[in-house]
Design brief:
Shape: globular
Low-confidence stretches: 1-14
Strand content: 25-35%
Largest sheet: 9 strands, parallel
Bound molecules: (2S,3S,4S,5R)-3,4,5-trihydroxy-6-oxo-oxane-2-carboxylic acid
Radius of gyration: 25 Å
Length: about 600
């Protein structure tokens, strides 16, 4: 019987696909957001038997495995879990801020929710899609394992077409946010390790031949040529696809081979996307079975010596760094409203650019940046000291990079893919980052690659800062984090420092900052006061003016954010206080200092 079923699946061309679906917001879908039943399982009792062997490796998993969602058949049967009597958590959302007992929890929580087959057309295919689950997810449907996903900030999906029954399907996730040395990020980070199903979940209905992925952007260095590819899934050779941009009067028919086609379209009258005029075009990708709309902007981005050229014109990146956290809720951000809040603040600050630190943020942020006209630096969580020599760690980082680029490469706002933050130089680190860069360039040759590097004082002269990390030779933009006046020296030292940077490339200060408690006042040399932070900004902004090749800055950080490393009572209380805005929404003095600087820069680069 099993064999017969397998043969039928193969013949029907219904082999399961796990390739990432992009632009899920425009696909036919039903949301699986809402209340999910949860079981907190610190000993992973629902996953391992008493010999500590995973149930999901057994031929016939025991009903003790939580993913079996078993219910006692009669009163004599022993069953030691029950999702139906367990408390719920909201999805999307972090568990830490939804239940007090989970605030510091790092471990396994099981999530379960039931749903019916929603297909209008019995022949269509169904996928479950997760915007992000932190950190590791084991996913099961009706007791069958769909797969595992590692990495807390990127999307994934599984095809469930052949596993579905008409009613009461049960989807179970084992979500584990334990930190470990080989993970990406590794054990040590300066942000909250929020656990849970932290982004939207959807059940997506697709035709048998479906549009899986595409890139539709201006060709590198070509202001009037749109190029890219379309990838179908389940297509027979010769399947037709069409790309249409009605506003430009463009209709481009394509013929796919193995479901894939590349294209170049001449677009003479195209209006370019920019922060000043964030023009988006309605673009349609269409097959016989499906018409998918996207809103896409077109712009070129390149470098020329020290200059960053946006649509051929030199630009200065007036930025701010942002974590994916709503400071007012003190919780992981996930909604469009959260994104609007953060990006509206960035706009008020006079930004034309944001650094989305230290991992890919949710898709709302990128879509909104496209609409609001904010350039974006997007990053993967290769942060500090990941296990650079470990092959599995590299594979994981590459996978996260692939998922981020696949999801976001049609967003004009994104100009930089960042490979890493403050990683210590070594041959293993270099090989790791080079491998990531190779992957990024293969997937998207149109954007600039960068990384936030570190500097050191010149041996003989403490006022001279050297930025000579050899990986800089491979980057398109040199990013540097510096904390002169906070982690060492005084704010005045910043104003007096000289920088030696042996790269003829654009330089961006990807971080600087100082901690301040909103409403705390004192002299400019008193730590944690708004005056100290303001003064450090003033002195650092003077320094920026003398830095060679400087073409932008993204100070640390838009708003105070939670960090388990920040423990000073009465000051930090679990928060990194380097925000320009407090966690009650108060703008600190330095906010206005930076805004003044950006007003000046805007005029200078007009
Ligand atoms: C850094 C890190 C950032 C920290 C920040 C700080 O260099 O890149 O993640 O939060 O410094 O506040 O120390």
């Amino acid at each position: 019987m099993r064999h017969l079923l397998f043969m039928l699946l193969l013949l029907g061309g219904l082999a399961r696909s796990e390739a990432l679906l992009i632009n899920t917001g425009q696909r036919q879908s039903v949301s699986l957001n809402g209340a999910w039943a949860t079981i907190v399982d610190p000993y992973e009792t629902g996953y391992f038997n008493y010999r500590h062997e995973p149930y999901d490796q057994e031929k016939e998993p025991s009903t003790s495995a939580f993913f079996m969602n078993h219910h006692a058949r009669d009163k004599s049967e022993l069953v030691e879990y029950d999702f139906d009597k367990s408390p719920a958590l909201n999805v999307p959302g972090d568990w830490n801020t939804q239940r007090e007992s989970l605030f510091y929890y790092e471990g396994t929580v099981w999530f379960k929710r039931s749903f019916d087959d929603i297909r209008k057309d019995r022949k269509s295919r169904l996928f479950v899609y997760f915007g992000a689950v932190n950190y590791q997810a084991e996913v099961y449907l009706n007791g069958h394992k769909l797969g595992t996903h590692e990495g807390g900030f990127t999307p994934f999906n599984f095809e469930v077409t052949t596993l579905l029954r008409p009613r009461d399907n049960f989807l179970v996730l084992k979500v584990d946010n334990k930190r470990f040395a080989q993970a990406v990020p590794t054990v040590n980070t300066d942000w909250w390790n929020y656990g849970g199903i932290t982004r939207d979940v959807a059940l997506i209905e697709e035709p048998r031949t479906l549009i899986q992925d595409y890139q539709i952007q201006l060709k590198k260095n070509a202001a009037q040529t749109i190029s890219g590819f379309v990838q179908l899934d389940g297509a027979t050779d010769g399947e037709a696809v069409q790309i249409e941009i009605p506003e430009l009067g463009l209709v481009q028919p394509l013929t796919t081979q193995k479901g894939y086609a590349t294209f170049e379209i001449s677009a003479k009258n195209i209006q370019h996307w920019s922060p000043e005029v964030p023009k988006l075009y309605q673009v349609f990708v269409q097959t016989r079975y499906q018409r998918l709309r996207d809103d896409i902007g077109f712009r070129t981005i390149a470098t020329d010596g020290p200059n960053i050229l946006l649509n051929g014109k030199s630009v200065y990146l007036r930025g701010i760094s942002i974590h994916e956290e709503n400071p007012l809720r003190g919780a992981r951000a996930f909604s469009e409203a959260d994104a609007l809040q953060a990006l509206t603040w960035a706009k008020e600050l006079g930004c034309n650019y944001v650094r989305l630190a230290h991992y890919p943020h949710n898709e709302h942020m990128l879509r909104l940046a496209d609409r609001l006209g904010l350039l974006v630096w997007e990053e993967i969580p290769v942060y500090w000291t990941v296990d650079f020599a470990n092959v599995a760690t590299l594979k994981n980082a590459r996978q996260q990079l692939v998922e981020a680029i696949s999801r976001d490469r049609n967003r004009a706002a994104i100009i930089v893919w960042s490979m890493a933050n403050e990683t210590p130089p070594s041959p293993a680190r270099n090989a790791f980052l080079n491998s990531l860069m190779e992957q990024a360039r293969e997937l998207d040759s149109t954007r600039l690659l960068s990384a936030a590097l570190q500097h050191h004082a010149n041996g003989t002269d403490a006022m001279t800062q050297v930025l000579d990390d050899s990986i800089g030779a491979q980057l398109d933009i040199i990013g540097v984090n510096e904390y002169i006046g906070w982690y060492g020296g005084t704010p005045q030292d910043a104003a007096h420092s000289r920088w030696l940077v042996p790269f003829n490339k654009p330089l961006v200060v990807s971080e600087f900052g100082a901690g301040a408690v909103a409403g705390r006042h004192g002299s400019r040399d008193e730590r944690w006061t708004e005056e100290y932070q303001e003064y450090l900004y003033q002195q650092t902004l003077l320094m920026l003016e003398s830095m060679p090749n400087l073409r932008g800055v993204s100070p640390w950080i838009l708003a105070d954010f939670r960090s388990p490393k920040r423990l000073l009572p009465g000051v930090q209380d679990g928060w990194n206080r380097k925000g320009l805005i407090s966690n009650s929404g108060v703008k600190k003095k330095a906010f206005f200092t930076l805004r003044g600087f950006y007003e000046k820069k805007e005029l200078e680069y007009r």
